[in-house]
Amino acid sequence: MAARSLYRPELDVLRFVAFLMVFLHHVLPREVAEVAGLDPLIGRLTVSTTQSLGFGLTLFFTLSAFIMTRLLREEQAATGTIRVGDFYVRRILRIWPLYALGLAIGFLLAEATDGPQGREMIGWFSLFLGNWWFLDHGWAVNPMTPLWSISVEEQFYLVLPLLLVITGARGGVRLGVAAIALGFVATWIQGERHLAIDTAIWTNTTTHLAAFGVGIALGEVTRKGAPFRGALGRAGLVVFALVAFFLAADVFDAKRIAEARSGFDVAFGHGLAAFAAGALILAVLDLRVTFPAMLLHLGKISFGLYVFHLLALRWVEATVQAGPVADAVLALGLDIVVASVSYAFWEKPFLALRRRFQTIASRPI
After folding, report:
1. pLDDT score of 2
2. pTM beyond cutoff 0.70
3. Which one of 19, 104, 149, 297 has the minimum C-beta count within 10 Å?
4. Dist CA 293 CA 183 (whole Å)
């Protein structure tokens, strides 16, 4: 039986916020050409705002690192060790069933959407190397393309428990800082090579080391409680995060659909986005609020929402064609239904098996 629960409902809410950011990023105009009829300044602000919403994925990565670090450190405190094998089994039971379903859908659609290259991409995805496929390719049409980010997370999960064992019980902060520094250098090098920001740089695992590093460090330093408890401090963190996300996209072009201008811009932009994600975690951590059950449910199914959201968008756009706003609303509703069904009838049985490998409980099923 788990020693105690580390479930934090506020983090489920933040998961849904991260998904919603990504969803809106894929719905709203992301290029200047799409807002050509607007005043140039308004058009630029609109595009930069949409691009900044793409950092919802950065928030996902930071949250994952934060939660996994907290769970593993609490397990180490309770048992004297980190059970690496149990961690891998828990991650497999959480990620692989839904990922396999997404791969199957992607495989069936591959030839029709992307031709011969479509199945090649799915092949890379099946080895959890899907993100590296985009170093030499543009974005695919296949609606399962978002699975590339699961490859990044799985690569992170493979090394995280080992690194926490190596660094010792109090080495998480140093590990986090090292990841941030390495990510900054790696992204700087990519920027100096003027790689494509939205594909080659964005899908490179090293680009997201800063997000993982911030999550690891926060997971270590907040074990005794959230440092910000007052409403004013929490509100300030939210404002900082929103401004930082926008500046990362608008000033530093970290999500621009073009080649990188310089190493500093893209590296600083992604670093700023990672700290913004960390600020949002601190803003909600240990928040004593009773959240609506529906909001918690949306956080619980956020993995499915992310996996199926482009599929829902493409289907509605192809069949309903009620206009951009109506299509987006209908697609979101369809996505919620599909993700809820997937969670209840496909993911839940596998999640129930995780209890056998838990020392510290996380979210209730």
Report:
1. 42
2. yes
3. 104
4. 37
Cβ atoms of residues 117 and 137 within 8 Å: yes
Domain boundaries, the chain: 9-357
Residues 110, 128: Cα–Cα separation, whole Å: 17
pLDDT at 1 over 50: no
* DSSP output for 253-317: -TT-SSB-S-HHHHHHHHHHHHHHHHHHHHHHTT------HHHHHHHHTHHHHHHHHHHHHHHHH
> So what's the pLDDT on residue 359?
83
**What is residue 133's three-state secondary structure?**
helix
* Spatial CA neighbour of 212 closest among 67, 54, 75, 91: 67
The neighbour count for residue 123, using CB atoms within 10 Å, is: 15
Tokens representing residue 185 in the block? 């250098």
Q: Assess contact for 213 and 176: CB atoms under 8 A.
A: yes
* Strand (E) or helix (H) holding 145: none
Tokens at residue 141, please? 């049409």
3-state secondary structure of 144: coil
Contact 25/58 with Cβ under 8 angstroms?
no
Mean pLDDT of 275-294: 95
CA dist., res. 315 & res. 168, Å (int)? 49
The CA–CA distances, whole Å, from 326 to 38, 313, 317, 333, 340 equal 21, 11, 10, 11, 21
- 298 burial (CB, 10 Å; 0-12 / 13-18 / 19+) is buried
Distances (CA, A) of 37 to 40, 44, 48, 195: 8, 12, 16, 30
* Cβ proximity of 62 and 274 under 8 Å: yes
Please tell me what DSSP assigns to residue 207. G
pLDDT at 4: 58
CA angle 83-84-85, nearest 5°? 95
Please state the φ and ψ torsions of residue 7, each to the nearest 5 degrees.
-65, 130
Tokens of 258: 């073009």
Q: Distance (Å, rounded) from C-alpha 130 to C-alpha 127?
A: 7
